[in-house]
Amino acid sequence: MAELRAARPGEAEALTDLVMRSKAHWGYGAGFLAACAPELRIEAGDVERRRIVVAGPGARSGGGPAAVLGLASLDGEPPLGRLGLLFVEPAAIGGGVGRLLYRDVVRRAAELGFRRLLIDADPHARGFYRAMGAVGEGPGPGPDALGALVPFEVAPAPLADWARAWTGGAAAVHVGNVAEYNAQFADASLDRGQTAAHHYACLAAFYSPRPAALVLPRPVPQGWISLLGRQLDWPAGVEVYDGLAERDPDLSDAVRARPALAARLAGTGSVTGALAGAPLVPWGLTAPFARLARRPWRPEELRYESKSAAHGLFGRILAEGGHPAITLPAQWRAPTRRAAVRLLASRTGAGESTVLKSEHGVGGSGTTVVTPERIRAAGGARAVVRALPRGPLLVEEYVRGPADPDEPRDLTYDGFVDARGRVHEVGGAVMDVADGGYRGATVGPGVVPGWAQEPLLAFGGAVGRELSAAGYRGWFDVDFVADGAGRLAPTETNLRLTGPSVAFVVAARLDELRGAGHFVRIVDRVELGARLPEAAFDDLCERLVRRCAGTGAVFLPAIPTGAFEPAPWMGALVAAAGRELLDAAERLVRAEALSVGAMFEQAGGAQPAGPEAASRAGAGSGFTSKALSGGREA
């Protein structure tokens, strides 16, 4: 693995030679190179003035100054600077050295207060800078403009304040206890086997910007881990413990059943390295997780996970005033099914649509939108209610959305309460919801309509303060529906991580790596044309990474394990510097996923079940891990 260090004045001549070899790699003639030489020459005094950093073999490789693989300079003074030089030894091109140097320049620029970096790129490097996230590319040189430079720029940004506060700036242990969290509510609308929840646990890869370890119930592909490490610049040594609770929702107890693993993750005993002092970040708080993390368990912290309790909380906040753009839909608790039928029939008779909800549920489970037309088609309110899962029902006023179908209807606020009870605002997102079911979310600059931004943030912050006062500590969100009249209607709180929270975390990490302004979309389900073996799925993901990078977008497979189901699918994250490019990236991913699956199916390839538990951590006695080795390498 290449390592970075400051260049030395005595290396100036050798570095100049490297620059010229790298420039010559693209086939330029001797005359052109001679004309470039004065501008590309590095003097001894330039090394410090231009903040030149070099990449070389790691210490274990024994490489000295002569073994430099590449160099980069950070020119100018804040706030406007220039990536003046970025050259890689020809033999090392394509090996990840350029990416390592580029990301280092962006990081150093952010730390020094640069807010804009200009780049004049060799036309042969146009694809590289586009893939790295640089923007502003012009039409490019004409056919007679030999070696004419192509302009790019990047907006360096430090890691967002909220992201630093979330884990105290430290790498964290991510515990994918989604099924465990859901199971504690024993809601009839939730799948008892928690199949979907075990898939969704793969989002543990994105619980914070810098994981130290991932703890997962199901086996995951090794190629998936390596790809994420490269795309998100994870440090070498991220530990992965998977296959720990494939058929059991209690992931935390499965970890505790392996005392050595539990001690390592919880930081007890003689733990060294990245896990020493690393905080444990779960999907949500549970009694088993509290035992694993050795923290007090206070079930009352989660009382506002109940939809009726959250509705009452919203009402109390609104009664205090100060939120004129927030409206609260009426809600009635139906103690019996007969009462629910009467309420529904009464509202249908008045021509009103209704939302039927269970007390808990995730992703829209247990939530049904019922129109008068649907009641008549079903044969009456009794038939509709009879088809719903057993358990208490909430009957809620339906909020009609904006008349313009392009206006966002489903919005959410994300924030968290830290250990000291302080509320941190993360931001607002637009959710993709169809027929009451959550399908994904988009975050980024301006995705929340201007009229909704201030009331959404103000009310979300007010809910956070109430949660803090009630003793809750951790991530939360507040979901809203836009009513089409310039108001927002809060519908529920989620006292856990969410799909939108993952998008926020990825946006913060990409802003840090590639420059500010990323839009990120999480798509819960991308259909695959056929059930792929693990190697073919890895190949698909690598191809999608390359194709998206070619447009300046980023692709991350968010949920790989669905690819090995009989009806195969995957979850995906796409990111880009603009909304049109984001939409195009999603279309590309969906089309490629279907087409490559169909091609594989036509070829008659074998369709095994995917990652085998026997080779994964926790499948046998004791525990092992898949540690990410060389996560920074291409």
In short, what is this structure?
This protein is of the alpha+beta class and 634 residues long. Mean pLDDT is 89; it is low at 60-65, 613-624 and 629-634.
Structure, described:
- It is elongated and about 90 Å long.
- Strand 10, helix 9 and strand 11 form a beta-alpha-beta unit.
- The protein is of the alpha+beta class and 634 residues long.
- The strands form five sheets. It has an eight-stranded antiparallel β-sheet, sandwiched between helices. It has a five-stranded mixed β-sheet with strand order 12-9-10-11-25, covered by helices on one side. Strands 1-2-3-6 form a four-stranded antiparallel β-sheet, sandwiched between helices.
Mean pLDDT: 89
Number of strands: 25
Q: How many helix segments?
A: 20
* Poorly predicted regions: 60-65, 613-624, 629-634
- What's the Cα radius of gyration? 27 Å
The general outline is elongated
Percent range for β-strand residues: 15-25%
Class inferred from helices and paired strands: alpha+beta
Sheet with the most strands: spatial strand order: 21-20-17-18-19-22-24-23
Q: State the helical fraction.
A: 25-40%
How far is the first residue's CA from the last residue's CA? 10 Å
What characterizes the major β-sheet?
8 strands, antiparallel
